[in-house]
Protein backbone atom coordinates (compact mmCIF):
# COMPACT_ATOMS: atom_id res chain seq x y z
CA UNK A 1 0.00 0.00 0.00
CA UNK A 2 1.40 3.42 -1.00
CA UNK A 3 1.78 6.19 1.50
CA UNK A 4 0.55 9.70 0.82
CA UNK A 5 0.78 13.11 2.46
CA UNK A 6 -2.29 15.18 3.23
CA UNK A 7 -2.67 18.75 4.48
CA UNK A 8 -2.94 19.03 8.24
CA UNK A 9 -4.81 22.33 7.76
CA UNK A 10 -6.01 24.57 4.96
CA UNK A 11 -3.22 26.67 3.42
CA UNK A 12 -3.03 29.41 0.81
CA UNK A 13 -0.58 29.27 -2.04
CA UNK A 14 2.96 30.52 -1.43
CA UNK A 15 3.24 28.98 2.04
CA UNK A 16 5.87 26.50 3.24
CA UNK A 17 4.38 23.15 4.18
CA UNK A 18 7.47 21.84 5.94
CA UNK A 19 10.51 23.00 7.77
CA UNK A 20 13.98 22.39 6.36
CA UNK A 21 14.15 18.57 6.20
CA UNK A 22 17.61 17.05 6.58
CA UNK A 23 18.56 14.04 4.41
CA UNK A 24 19.19 10.45 5.37
CA UNK A 25 22.02 10.24 2.83
CA UNK A 26 23.70 12.40 0.20
CA UNK A 27 26.37 12.00 -2.47
CA UNK A 28 27.97 14.51 -4.79
CA UNK A 29 28.07 13.61 -8.47
CA UNK A 30 31.54 12.43 -9.49
CA UNK A 31 32.29 15.67 -11.37
CA UNK A 32 31.86 17.75 -8.18
CA UNK A 33 33.86 15.62 -5.74
CA UNK A 34 36.91 17.88 -5.98
CA UNK A 35 35.11 21.24 -6.21
CA UNK A 36 32.43 20.94 -3.51
CA UNK A 37 32.22 19.81 0.08
CA UNK A 38 30.99 16.21 0.41
CA UNK A 39 29.23 17.09 3.66
CA UNK A 40 27.37 20.37 3.09
CA UNK A 41 27.67 20.66 -0.75
CA UNK A 42 29.07 24.20 -0.56
CA UNK A 43 31.67 25.24 -3.13
CA UNK A 44 35.27 24.86 -1.97
CA UNK A 45 37.32 28.04 -1.88
CA UNK A 46 40.48 27.67 -3.93
CA UNK A 47 43.67 27.58 -1.87
CA UNK A 48 41.70 27.88 1.35
CA UNK A 49 43.67 26.52 4.36
CA UNK A 50 40.40 25.14 5.76
CA UNK A 51 39.84 22.70 2.89
CA UNK A 52 40.71 19.14 3.86
CA UNK A 53 40.14 15.66 2.46
CA UNK A 54 39.94 12.03 3.50
CA UNK A 55 43.55 10.92 3.99
CA UNK A 56 42.74 7.32 3.08
CA UNK A 57 40.98 7.60 -0.27
CA UNK A 58 41.67 11.28 -1.11
CA UNK A 59 38.43 11.20 -3.12
CA UNK A 60 36.19 13.36 -0.94
CA UNK A 61 36.91 16.87 0.29
CA UNK A 62 35.47 19.09 2.99
CA UNK A 63 35.21 22.85 3.37
CA UNK A 64 36.16 22.85 7.06
CA UNK A 65 37.13 20.63 9.97
CA UNK A 66 33.54 20.68 11.23
CA UNK A 67 32.24 19.11 8.02
CA UNK A 68 35.09 16.59 8.09
CA UNK A 69 34.30 15.47 11.62
CA UNK A 70 30.55 15.30 10.96
CA UNK A 71 30.90 13.16 7.84
CA UNK A 72 34.05 11.08 8.31
CA UNK A 73 32.39 8.30 10.31
CA UNK A 74 29.66 7.75 7.72
CA UNK A 75 32.18 7.99 4.90
CA UNK A 76 34.42 5.29 6.34
CA UNK A 77 31.89 3.07 8.13
CA UNK A 78 29.44 2.90 5.24
CA UNK A 79 32.05 1.40 2.94
CA UNK A 80 32.30 4.48 0.70
CA UNK A 81 35.97 4.99 1.50
CA UNK A 82 36.73 1.32 0.80
CA UNK A 83 34.81 1.60 -2.45
CA UNK A 84 37.04 4.44 -3.64
CA UNK A 85 40.27 2.71 -2.55
CA UNK A 86 39.68 -0.91 -3.51
CA UNK A 87 36.52 -1.44 -5.54
CA UNK A 88 36.02 1.41 -7.98
CA UNK A 89 38.54 -0.12 -10.36
CA UNK A 90 36.47 -3.32 -10.46
CA UNK A 91 33.43 -1.49 -11.82
CA UNK A 92 32.68 -1.76 -15.51
CA UNK A 93 33.48 1.17 -17.76
CA UNK A 94 29.77 1.87 -18.33
CA UNK A 95 29.15 2.03 -14.59
CA UNK A 96 31.95 4.53 -14.02
CA UNK A 97 30.96 6.60 -17.07
CA UNK A 98 27.39 7.00 -15.77
CA UNK A 99 28.70 8.03 -12.35
CA UNK A 100 28.77 6.40 -8.93
CA UNK A 101 26.72 8.86 -6.86
CA UNK A 102 23.73 6.49 -6.61
CA UNK A 103 25.90 3.64 -5.36
CA UNK A 104 27.70 5.82 -2.82
CA UNK A 105 24.39 7.27 -1.59
CA UNK A 106 23.07 3.71 -1.20
CA UNK A 107 26.09 2.73 0.92
CA UNK A 108 25.54 5.76 3.15
CA UNK A 109 21.79 5.21 3.36
CA UNK A 110 22.14 1.57 4.34
CA UNK A 111 24.68 2.36 7.05
CA UNK A 112 22.51 5.11 8.59
CA UNK A 113 19.38 2.94 8.57
CA UNK A 114 21.22 -0.02 10.11
CA UNK A 115 22.73 2.13 12.85
CA UNK A 116 19.25 3.33 13.86
CA UNK A 117 17.48 0.00 13.62
CA UNK A 118 15.35 0.99 10.64
CA UNK A 119 16.12 -2.02 8.43
CA UNK A 120 13.33 -4.60 8.80
CA UNK A 121 14.08 -8.16 7.71
CA UNK A 122 10.38 -8.70 7.01
CA UNK A 123 10.19 -5.76 4.62
CA UNK A 124 13.48 -6.71 2.96
CA UNK A 125 12.32 -10.27 2.37
CA UNK A 126 9.04 -8.96 0.93
CA UNK A 127 10.80 -6.41 -1.29
CA UNK A 128 8.47 -3.70 0.02
CA UNK A 129 10.25 -0.94 1.95
CA UNK A 130 13.55 -0.13 3.57
CA UNK A 131 13.62 2.41 6.38
CA UNK A 132 10.13 3.56 5.42
CA UNK A 133 11.28 4.30 1.84
CA UNK A 134 9.33 2.59 -0.91
CA UNK A 135 11.18 -0.16 -2.77
CA UNK A 136 8.21 -1.46 -4.73
CA UNK A 137 8.85 -2.21 -8.38
CA UNK A 138 12.31 -3.71 -7.87
CA UNK A 139 11.16 -7.15 -8.96
CA UNK A 140 9.70 -5.74 -12.17
CA UNK A 141 12.90 -3.78 -12.78
CA UNK A 142 15.05 -6.90 -12.37
CA UNK A 143 12.76 -9.01 -14.55
CA UNK A 144 12.84 -6.48 -17.40
CA UNK A 145 16.61 -6.92 -17.59
CA UNK A 146 17.33 -3.46 -18.99
CA UNK A 147 20.08 -1.00 -18.09
CA UNK A 148 18.56 -0.30 -14.67
CA UNK A 149 18.53 -4.02 -13.85
CA UNK A 150 22.19 -4.30 -14.87
CA UNK A 151 23.05 -1.31 -12.71
CA UNK A 152 21.26 -2.78 -9.69
CA UNK A 153 22.95 -6.17 -10.08
CA UNK A 154 26.47 -4.83 -10.61
CA UNK A 155 26.03 -2.07 -8.04
CA UNK A 156 24.85 -4.45 -5.33
CA UNK A 157 27.95 -6.62 -5.87
CA UNK A 158 30.23 -3.59 -5.54
CA UNK A 159 28.35 -2.43 -2.46
CA UNK A 160 28.56 -5.83 -0.79
CA UNK A 161 32.29 -6.04 -1.46
CA UNK A 162 32.91 -2.55 -0.07
CA UNK A 163 30.77 -3.20 3.01
CA UNK A 164 32.56 -6.45 3.81
CA UNK A 165 35.91 -4.71 3.60
CA UNK A 166 35.08 -2.23 6.35
CA UNK A 167 35.79 -2.98 10.01
CA UNK A 168 32.16 -2.99 11.20
CA UNK A 169 29.77 -5.89 10.79
CA UNK A 170 26.48 -5.34 9.03
CA UNK A 171 22.97 -6.78 8.83
CA UNK A 172 22.91 -10.07 6.91
CA UNK A 173 19.98 -11.81 5.24
CA UNK A 174 19.50 -15.19 3.60
CA UNK A 175 20.03 -13.58 0.22
CA UNK A 176 23.29 -11.77 0.88
CA UNK A 177 22.72 -9.17 -1.82
CA UNK A 178 19.05 -8.44 -1.25
CA UNK A 179 19.59 -5.62 1.24
CA UNK A 180 22.13 -3.94 -1.08
CA UNK A 181 19.76 -4.26 -4.02
CA UNK A 182 16.93 -2.80 -1.95
CA UNK A 183 19.04 0.13 -0.79
CA UNK A 184 20.27 0.91 -4.30
CA UNK A 185 16.74 0.68 -5.73
CA UNK A 186 15.47 2.91 -2.90
CA UNK A 187 18.06 5.51 -3.91
CA UNK A 188 17.16 5.25 -7.59
CA UNK A 189 13.45 5.74 -6.90
CA UNK A 190 13.53 8.08 -3.89
CA UNK A 191 16.54 10.32 -4.45
CA UNK A 192 16.26 13.84 -5.85
CA UNK A 193 18.81 15.92 -7.72
CA UNK A 194 20.13 18.68 -5.43
CA UNK A 195 20.14 22.09 -7.10
CA UNK A 196 21.50 24.92 -4.99
CA UNK A 197 22.83 27.42 -7.51
CA UNK A 198 21.79 28.29 -11.06
CA UNK A 199 19.87 25.04 -11.38
CA UNK A 200 23.05 22.96 -11.49
CA UNK A 201 22.51 19.40 -10.22
CA UNK A 202 25.54 18.84 -7.96
CA UNK A 203 24.50 15.54 -6.42
CA UNK A 204 21.64 13.51 -5.01
CA UNK A 205 19.96 13.26 -1.64
CA UNK A 206 17.61 10.74 -0.06
CA UNK A 207 15.16 12.08 2.50
CA UNK A 208 13.05 10.24 5.05
CA UNK A 209 9.26 9.83 5.15
CA UNK A 210 8.76 13.55 5.78
CA UNK A 211 9.63 14.13 2.12
CA UNK A 212 9.74 10.77 0.35
CA UNK A 213 6.05 10.07 1.06
CA UNK A 214 4.89 12.96 -1.13
CA UNK A 215 3.41 11.34 -4.24
CA UNK A 216 3.63 12.47 -7.85
CA UNK A 217 0.98 14.31 -9.83
CA UNK A 218 1.13 15.70 -13.37
CA UNK A 219 -0.85 18.66 -11.96
CA UNK A 220 1.01 19.06 -8.62
CA UNK A 221 -0.04 21.48 -5.90
CA UNK A 222 3.39 21.75 -4.25
CA UNK A 223 7.05 22.21 -5.13
CA UNK A 224 10.31 21.91 -3.23
CA UNK A 225 13.55 23.83 -2.91
CA UNK A 226 16.96 23.11 -1.40
CA UNK A 227 18.81 25.15 1.21
CA UNK A 228 22.27 24.80 2.71
CA UNK A 229 22.38 23.65 6.32
CA UNK A 230 23.39 26.29 8.88
CA UNK A 231 26.78 25.83 10.51
CA UNK A 232 27.63 26.08 14.22
CA UNK A 233 24.14 25.11 15.28
CA UNK A 234 22.73 22.10 17.07
CA UNK A 235 22.10 19.54 14.37
CA UNK A 236 19.09 21.07 12.66
CA UNK A 237 17.82 24.53 13.53
CA UNK A 238 14.48 24.37 11.72
CA UNK A 239 12.20 22.12 13.74
CA UNK A 240 8.96 23.52 12.33
CA UNK A 241 6.02 21.18 12.55
CA UNK A 242 5.05 19.82 9.16
CA UNK A 243 1.72 21.02 7.82
CA UNK A 244 1.36 17.78 5.88
CA UNK A 245 0.85 14.40 7.56
CA UNK A 246 0.96 10.83 6.21
CA UNK A 247 -2.18 8.87 5.45
CA UNK A 248 -2.76 5.31 4.28
CA UNK A 249 -4.49 2.07 5.21
CA UNK A 250 -3.16 -1.43 5.44
CA UNK A 251 0.47 -0.44 6.01
CA UNK A 252 2.65 -2.53 8.30
CA UNK A 253 3.47 -1.13 11.73
CA UNK A 254 7.21 -0.97 11.04
CA UNK A 255 6.55 1.44 8.18
CA UNK A 256 4.85 3.82 10.59
CA UNK A 257 7.79 3.33 12.95
CA UNK A 258 10.01 5.18 10.49
CA UNK A 259 7.65 8.15 10.48
CA UNK A 260 7.26 8.29 14.25
CA UNK A 261 11.02 7.95 14.67
CA UNK A 262 11.58 10.95 12.43
CA UNK A 263 8.78 13.00 13.98
CA UNK A 264 9.98 12.38 17.55
CA UNK A 265 13.36 13.98 16.92
CA UNK A 266 14.20 15.81 13.67
CA UNK A 267 17.91 15.02 14.20
CA UNK A 268 17.40 11.26 14.00
CA UNK A 269 19.16 9.34 11.23
CA UNK A 270 20.14 12.46 9.35
CA UNK A 271 23.19 14.06 7.82
CA UNK A 272 24.35 16.87 10.05
CA UNK A 273 25.14 19.35 7.29
CA UNK A 274 23.60 17.79 4.19
CA UNK A 275 21.41 20.05 2.00
CA UNK A 276 17.90 20.51 3.38
CA UNK A 277 14.68 20.35 1.38
CA UNK A 278 11.59 22.52 1.98
CA UNK A 279 8.15 21.72 0.54
CA UNK A 280 6.01 24.70 -0.49
CA UNK A 281 2.42 24.83 -1.75
CA UNK A 282 1.84 26.34 -5.20
CA UNK A 283 -1.97 26.18 -5.11
CA UNK A 284 -4.56 26.70 -2.37
CA UNK A 285 -4.94 23.42 -0.45
CA UNK A 286 -7.87 22.45 1.76
CA UNK A 287 -7.48 20.51 4.99
CA UNK A 288 -7.29 16.79 4.20
CA UNK A 289 -6.37 17.24 0.52
CA UNK A 290 -3.45 15.19 -0.77
CA UNK A 291 -0.27 17.18 -1.34
CA UNK A 292 1.66 16.14 -4.47
CA UNK A 293 4.87 17.18 -6.18
CA UNK A 294 6.17 16.48 -9.69
CA UNK A 295 8.74 13.74 -10.29
CA UNK A 296 9.23 14.39 -14.02
CA UNK A 297 9.06 17.03 -16.76
CA UNK A 298 5.38 17.98 -17.14
CA UNK A 299 5.72 19.45 -20.63
CA UNK A 300 5.20 16.06 -22.28
CA UNK A 301 2.42 13.97 -23.75
CA UNK A 302 0.55 11.57 -21.49
CA UNK A 303 2.30 8.64 -23.17
CA UNK A 304 5.74 10.19 -22.65
CA UNK A 305 5.00 11.01 -19.00
CA UNK A 306 3.82 7.45 -18.32
CA UNK A 307 6.89 6.07 -20.06
CA UNK A 308 9.21 8.20 -17.91
CA UNK A 309 7.44 7.26 -14.70
CA UNK A 310 7.45 3.56 -15.48
CA UNK A 311 11.09 3.57 -16.58
CA UNK A 312 12.33 5.02 -13.29
CA UNK A 313 9.60 4.43 -10.71
CA UNK A 314 7.61 1.46 -12.07
CA UNK A 315 4.14 2.93 -11.65
CA UNK A 316 1.46 4.34 -13.95
CA UNK A 317 0.10 7.74 -12.99
CA UNK A 318 -3.66 8.11 -12.47
CA UNK A 319 -3.75 11.76 -11.41
CA UNK A 320 -6.52 14.13 -12.44
CA UNK A 321 -4.62 15.22 -15.54
CA UNK A 322 -4.00 11.67 -16.73
CA UNK A 323 -7.58 10.41 -16.28
CA UNK A 324 -9.42 13.57 -17.38
CA UNK A 325 -11.98 13.22 -20.15
CA UNK A 326 -12.08 15.27 -22.24
CA UNK A 327 -8.37 15.96 -22.03
CA UNK A 328 -7.23 19.19 -20.31
CA UNK A 329 -6.48 22.25 -22.42
CA UNK A 330 -2.73 21.91 -21.95
CA UNK A 331 -2.70 18.39 -23.38
CA UNK A 332 -5.05 19.32 -26.19
CA UNK A 333 -2.90 22.24 -27.28
CA UNK A 334 0.42 20.40 -26.84
CA UNK A 335 -0.55 17.23 -28.70
CA UNK A 336 -3.03 18.03 -31.47
CA UNK A 337 -1.75 19.22 -34.80
CA UNK A 338 -3.15 22.32 -36.49
CA UNK A 339 -5.85 20.44 -38.44
CA UNK A 340 -7.36 18.82 -35.34
CA UNK A 341 -7.48 21.74 -32.92
CA UNK A 342 -11.22 22.32 -33.18
CA UNK A 343 -12.36 18.72 -33.62
CA UNK A 344 -14.01 16.67 -30.87
CA UNK A 345 -11.70 14.21 -29.11
CA UNK A 346 -13.22 11.12 -30.78
CA UNK A 347 -12.66 12.57 -34.25
CA UNK A 348 -8.93 13.10 -33.93
CA UNK A 349 -6.86 11.49 -36.65
CA UNK A 350 -3.78 9.45 -35.88
CA UNK A 351 -0.86 11.79 -35.10
CA UNK A 352 1.49 12.39 -37.99
CA UNK A 353 4.15 14.56 -36.37
CA UNK A 354 6.42 11.76 -35.20
CA UNK A 355 8.72 12.20 -38.20
CA UNK A 356 9.07 15.91 -37.45
CA UNK A 357 9.86 15.12 -33.86
CA UNK A 358 12.52 12.61 -34.94
CA UNK A 359 14.11 15.17 -37.27
CA UNK A 360 14.09 17.73 -34.49
CA UNK A 361 15.73 15.39 -31.99
CA UNK A 362 18.37 14.47 -34.57
CA UNK A 363 19.23 18.16 -35.12
CA UNK A 364 19.47 18.76 -31.38
CA UNK A 365 21.61 15.65 -30.88
CA UNK A 366 24.03 16.66 -33.64
CA UNK A 367 24.27 20.16 -32.15
CA UNK A 368 24.98 18.75 -28.68
CA UNK A 369 27.67 16.41 -29.96
CA UNK A 370 29.37 18.65 -32.50
CA UNK A 371 28.55 22.22 -31.42
CA UNK A 372 27.48 23.06 -34.99
CA UNK A 373 24.95 25.69 -33.97
CA UNK A 374 24.46 27.04 -37.49
CA UNK A 375 23.53 23.64 -38.92
CA UNK A 376 21.13 23.11 -36.03
CA UNK A 377 19.41 26.46 -36.66
CA UNK A 378 19.16 25.85 -40.41
CA UNK A 379 17.65 22.39 -40.02
CA UNK A 380 15.09 23.31 -37.38
CA UNK A 381 14.04 26.58 -39.06
CA UNK A 382 13.57 24.78 -42.34
CA UNK A 383 11.30 22.27 -40.63
CA UNK A 384 9.27 25.03 -38.95
CA UNK A 385 8.99 27.10 -42.14
CA UNK A 386 7.55 24.16 -44.03
CA UNK A 387 5.15 22.93 -41.35
CA UNK A 388 4.16 25.82 -39.07
CA UNK A 389 0.71 27.26 -39.81
CA UNK A 390 0.30 30.96 -40.48
CA UNK A 391 -2.45 33.23 -39.26
CA UNK A 392 -5.53 32.38 -41.37
CA UNK A 393 -7.11 35.19 -43.33
CA UNK A 394 -10.82 35.82 -43.33
CA UNK A 395 -12.65 33.39 -45.56
CA UNK A 396 -9.65 31.07 -45.90
CA UNK A 397 -10.44 27.37 -46.14
CA UNK A 398 -9.48 25.29 -43.11
CA UNK A 399 -7.77 22.57 -45.10
CA UNK A 400 -4.18 23.59 -44.39
CA UNK A 401 -1.03 21.94 -45.55
CA UNK A 402 0.87 23.05 -42.44
CA UNK A 403 0.34 20.73 -39.48
CA UNK A 404 2.12 22.53 -36.63
CA UNK A 405 0.73 25.43 -34.61
CA UNK A 406 2.86 27.69 -32.34
CA UNK A 407 1.84 25.91 -29.12
CA UNK A 408 2.47 22.34 -30.26
CA UNK A 409 4.97 20.37 -28.17
CA UNK A 410 7.29 20.02 -31.19
CA UNK A 411 7.37 23.82 -31.49
CA UNK A 412 8.22 24.20 -27.79
CA UNK A 413 11.22 21.92 -28.27
CA UNK A 414 12.20 23.79 -31.43
CA UNK A 415 12.00 27.20 -29.72
CA UNK A 416 14.21 25.98 -26.85
CA UNK A 417 16.82 24.59 -29.23
CA UNK A 418 16.85 27.67 -31.46
CA UNK A 419 17.01 30.13 -28.56
CA UNK A 420 19.97 28.20 -27.14
CA UNK A 421 21.77 27.84 -30.47
CA UNK A 422 21.37 31.49 -31.48
CA UNK A 423 22.43 32.62 -28.00
CA UNK A 424 25.53 30.44 -28.30
CA UNK A 425 26.34 31.91 -31.71
CA UNK A 426 25.85 35.47 -30.47
CA UNK A 427 28.02 35.02 -27.38
CA UNK A 428 30.68 33.25 -29.44
CA UNK A 429 30.77 36.18 -31.85
CA UNK A 430 30.98 38.69 -29.02
CA UNK A 431 33.89 36.86 -27.40
CA UNK A 432 35.59 36.31 -30.75
CA UNK A 433 35.61 32.52 -30.41
CA UNK A 434 33.43 31.83 -33.44
CA UNK A 435 35.23 31.96 -36.76
CA UNK A 436 33.77 31.94 -40.25
CA UNK A 437 31.00 34.45 -39.50
CA UNK A 438 31.27 38.21 -39.85
CA UNK A 439 31.19 40.19 -36.63
CA UNK A 440 28.29 42.18 -38.11
CA UNK A 441 26.19 39.04 -37.62
CA UNK A 442 26.28 39.51 -33.85
CA UNK A 443 23.19 41.73 -33.87
CA UNK A 444 21.29 39.31 -36.12
CA UNK A 445 22.13 36.35 -33.86
CA UNK A 446 21.14 38.31 -30.74
CA UNK A 447 17.87 39.40 -32.33
CA UNK A 448 16.97 35.83 -33.31
CA UNK A 449 17.80 34.56 -29.81
CA UNK A 450 15.56 37.25 -28.31
CA UNK A 451 12.69 36.42 -30.69
CA UNK A 452 12.73 32.68 -29.98
CA UNK A 453 13.17 33.24 -26.24
CA UNK A 454 10.20 35.61 -26.20
CA UNK A 455 7.83 33.32 -28.12
CA UNK A 456 8.90 30.46 -25.83
CA UNK A 457 8.03 32.50 -22.73
CA UNK A 458 4.76 33.67 -24.28
CA UNK A 459 3.70 30.16 -25.30
CA UNK A 460 4.46 28.83 -21.82
CA UNK A 461 2.51 31.72 -20.29
CA UNK A 462 -0.52 30.59 -22.30
CA UNK A 463 -0.27 27.10 -20.77
CA UNK A 464 0.40 28.54 -17.32
CA UNK A 465 -2.75 30.68 -17.37
CA UNK A 466 -4.78 27.49 -17.72
CA UNK A 467 -2.75 25.43 -15.21
CA UNK A 468 -0.41 27.05 -12.68
CA UNK A 469 1.61 23.81 -12.34
CA UNK A 470 3.72 25.29 -15.16
CA UNK A 471 4.82 28.18 -12.93
CA UNK A 472 8.45 27.10 -12.63
CA UNK A 473 9.22 26.36 -16.30
CA UNK A 474 7.59 29.70 -17.13
CA UNK A 475 9.94 31.41 -14.67
CA UNK A 476 12.97 29.93 -16.41
CA UNK A 477 11.70 30.91 -19.86
CA UNK A 478 10.89 34.45 -18.68
CA UNK A 479 14.36 35.10 -17.31
CA UNK A 480 15.83 33.61 -20.50
CA UNK A 481 13.73 36.01 -22.57
CA UNK A 482 14.68 38.96 -20.37
CA UNK A 483 18.39 38.20 -20.59
CA UNK A 484 18.21 37.74 -24.38
CA UNK A 485 16.41 41.07 -24.79
CA UNK A 486 19.00 42.83 -22.61
CA UNK A 487 21.80 41.21 -24.62
CA UNK A 488 20.20 42.38 -27.86
CA UNK A 489 20.36 46.04 -26.82
CA UNK A 490 23.85 45.63 -25.38
CA UNK A 491 25.05 44.18 -28.70
CA UNK A 492 24.44 47.53 -30.42
CA UNK A 493 26.74 50.51 -30.33
CA UNK A 494 25.91 53.16 -27.75
CA UNK A 495 25.14 53.34 -24.07
CA UNK A 496 22.37 51.12 -22.73
CA UNK A 497 21.80 53.35 -19.72
CA UNK A 498 20.28 56.21 -21.71
CA UNK A 499 17.55 53.87 -22.93
CA UNK A 500 17.02 52.13 -19.62
CA UNK A 501 16.10 55.37 -17.86
CA UNK A 502 13.33 55.93 -20.38
CA UNK A 503 12.32 52.27 -20.31
CA UNK A 504 11.66 52.36 -16.59
CA UNK A 505 9.20 55.22 -17.01
CA UNK A 506 7.16 53.11 -19.45
CA UNK A 507 7.20 50.25 -16.96
CA UNK A 508 5.17 51.90 -14.19
CA UNK A 509 2.00 49.87 -14.89
CA UNK A 510 3.63 46.48 -14.28
CA UNK A 511 2.52 44.82 -11.01
CA UNK A 512 4.81 45.25 -8.04
CA UNK A 513 6.65 42.06 -7.15
CA UNK A 514 8.78 43.10 -4.22
CA UNK A 515 6.10 42.56 -1.58
CA UNK A 516 6.44 39.71 0.87
CA UNK A 517 4.63 36.56 -0.29
CA UNK A 518 4.26 34.52 2.86
CA UNK A 519 0.64 33.82 1.94
CA UNK A 520 -1.33 34.72 -1.14
CA UNK A 521 -4.90 34.30 -2.26
CA UNK A 522 -5.34 32.74 -5.68
CA UNK A 523 -7.56 35.56 -6.96
CA UNK A 524 -4.85 38.11 -6.16
CA UNK A 525 -2.22 35.91 -7.78
CA UNK A 526 -4.30 35.42 -10.92
CA UNK A 527 -4.97 39.14 -11.25
CA UNK A 528 -1.26 39.96 -10.91
CA UNK A 529 -0.24 37.40 -13.54
CA UNK A 530 -2.85 38.70 -15.97
CA UNK A 531 -1.46 42.20 -15.36
CA UNK A 532 2.02 41.03 -16.31
CA UNK A 533 0.59 39.34 -19.40
CA UNK A 534 -1.16 42.50 -20.55
CA UNK A 535 1.99 44.55 -20.06
CA UNK A 536 4.08 42.04 -22.01
CA UNK A 537 1.47 41.95 -24.78
CA UNK A 538 1.30 45.72 -25.07
CA UNK A 539 5.09 46.01 -25.26
CA UNK A 540 5.46 43.10 -27.68
CA UNK A 541 3.19 44.79 -30.24
CA UNK A 542 5.73 47.57 -30.58
CA UNK A 543 8.77 45.35 -31.15
CA UNK A 544 7.62 41.92 -32.39
CA UNK A 545 7.50 42.83 -36.13
CA UNK A 546 11.07 44.08 -35.84
CA UNK A 547 12.32 41.04 -33.88
CA UNK A 548 10.99 38.52 -36.44
CA UNK A 549 12.35 40.25 -39.53
CA UNK A 550 14.46 37.68 -41.37
CA UNK A 551 12.89 34.75 -39.47
CA UNK A 552 10.21 33.38 -41.86
CA UNK A 553 8.93 30.76 -39.42
CA UNK A 554 8.27 33.36 -36.70
CA UNK A 555 6.78 35.86 -39.12
CA UNK A 556 3.84 33.45 -39.22
CA UNK A 557 3.22 34.06 -35.51
CA UNK A 558 0.86 37.03 -35.06
CA UNK A 559 2.01 37.77 -31.54
CA UNK A 560 4.29 35.94 -29.09
CA UNK A 561 2.06 36.52 -26.04
CA UNK A 562 -1.58 36.15 -27.17
CA UNK A 563 -2.59 33.00 -29.05
CA UNK A 564 -6.35 33.47 -29.01
CA UNK A 565 -6.27 33.63 -32.82
CA UNK A 566 -5.78 29.84 -32.84
CA UNK A 567 -9.45 29.54 -31.93
CA UNK A 568 -8.90 26.95 -29.19
CA UNK A 569 -7.43 28.94 -26.33
CA UNK A 570 -9.67 28.92 -23.27
CA UNK A 571 -8.56 32.45 -22.44
CA UNK A 572 -10.05 35.55 -23.91
CA UNK A 573 -7.84 38.02 -25.69
CA UNK A 574 -5.72 39.95 -23.20
CA UNK A 575 -6.51 43.31 -24.85
CA UNK A 576 -9.71 44.79 -26.31
CA UNK A 577 -10.04 44.58 -30.11
CA UNK A 578 -9.63 48.35 -30.58
CA UNK A 579 -6.29 48.26 -28.73
CA UNK A 580 -5.14 45.47 -31.03
CA UNK A 581 -5.99 47.60 -34.04
CA UNK A 582 -4.11 50.62 -32.73
CA UNK A 583 -1.01 48.68 -31.71
CA UNK A 584 -0.93 46.50 -34.83
CA UNK A 585 -0.87 49.60 -37.02
CA UNK A 586 2.72 50.18 -35.94
CA UNK A 587 5.23 48.38 -38.12
CA UNK A 588 8.74 49.56 -37.21
CA UNK A 589 11.45 48.39 -39.55
CA UNK A 590 14.57 49.81 -37.94
CA UNK A 591 16.15 49.70 -34.51
CA UNK A 592 15.14 53.16 -33.36
CA UNK A 593 15.52 54.76 -29.95
CA UNK A 594 11.87 53.97 -29.25
CA UNK A 595 12.47 50.34 -30.21
CA UNK A 596 15.35 50.05 -27.77
CA UNK A 597 13.33 51.58 -24.96
CA UNK A 598 10.43 49.22 -25.68
CA UNK A 599 12.67 46.15 -25.79
CA UNK A 600 14.34 47.13 -22.53
CA UNK A 601 10.93 47.64 -20.92
CA UNK A 602 9.91 44.20 -22.11
CA UNK A 603 13.15 42.73 -20.73
CA UNK A 604 12.50 44.31 -17.33
CA UNK A 605 8.91 43.07 -17.38
CA UNK A 606 9.99 39.48 -18.15
CA UNK A 607 12.60 39.41 -15.38
CA UNK A 608 10.24 41.02 -12.86
CA UNK A 609 7.52 38.49 -13.74
CA UNK A 610 10.09 35.70 -13.23
CA UNK A 611 11.04 37.08 -9.81
CA UNK A 612 7.39 37.27 -8.79
CA UNK A 613 6.58 33.69 -9.82
CA UNK A 614 9.77 32.22 -8.35
CA UNK A 615 9.19 33.94 -5.01
CA UNK A 616 5.74 32.37 -4.87
CA UNK A 617 6.72 28.92 -6.07
CA UNK A 618 9.97 28.50 -4.13
CA UNK A 619 10.42 31.54 -1.91
CA UNK A 620 12.37 34.80 -2.34
CA UNK A 621 15.72 33.15 -1.43
CA UNK A 622 15.62 30.67 -4.32
CA UNK A 623 18.59 31.03 -6.66
CA UNK A 624 16.38 32.06 -9.60
CA UNK A 625 14.65 34.80 -7.60
CA UNK A 626 18.04 36.07 -6.41
CA UNK A 627 19.37 36.00 -9.97
CA UNK A 628 16.36 37.96 -11.23
CA UNK A 629 16.82 40.48 -8.41
CA UNK A 630 20.49 40.94 -9.35
CA UNK A 631 19.57 41.56 -13.00
CA UNK A 632 16.99 44.16 -12.04
CA UNK A 633 19.36 45.90 -9.63
CA UNK A 634 22.00 45.85 -12.34
CA UNK A 635 19.64 47.58 -14.74
CA UNK A 636 19.00 50.29 -12.14
CA UNK A 637 22.72 50.89 -11.60
CA UNK A 638 23.23 51.35 -15.35
CA UNK A 639 20.72 54.19 -15.31
CA UNK A 640 22.57 56.06 -12.56
TrEMBL record:
Q: What InterPro entries does this protein map onto?
A: SET_dom_sf
Q: Which domain of life is it from?
A: Eukaryota
Ranges in a coiled coil:
none
Name by which UniProt lists this protein: SET domain-containing protein
Amino acid sequence: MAMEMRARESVNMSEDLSGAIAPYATALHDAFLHSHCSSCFSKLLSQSPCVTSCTTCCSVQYCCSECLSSDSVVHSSSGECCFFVEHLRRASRNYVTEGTSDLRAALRLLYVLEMHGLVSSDQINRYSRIGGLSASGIEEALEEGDEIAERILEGSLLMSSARKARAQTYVSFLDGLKVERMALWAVITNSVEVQLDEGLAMGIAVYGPGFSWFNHSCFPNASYRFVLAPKNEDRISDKSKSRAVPASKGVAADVWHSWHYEEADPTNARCKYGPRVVVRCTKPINKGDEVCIAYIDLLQTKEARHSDLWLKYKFICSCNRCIASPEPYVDLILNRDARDLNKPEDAIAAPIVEDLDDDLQQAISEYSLGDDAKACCDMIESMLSENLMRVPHKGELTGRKQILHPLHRVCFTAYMALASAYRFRAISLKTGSLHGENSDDLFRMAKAAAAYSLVLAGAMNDLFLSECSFMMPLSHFLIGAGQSLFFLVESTKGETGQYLSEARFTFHSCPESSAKHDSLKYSEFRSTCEGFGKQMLSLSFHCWPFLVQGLPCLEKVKNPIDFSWLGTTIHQSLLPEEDYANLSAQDPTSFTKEQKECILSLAICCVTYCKYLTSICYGPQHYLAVHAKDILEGSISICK
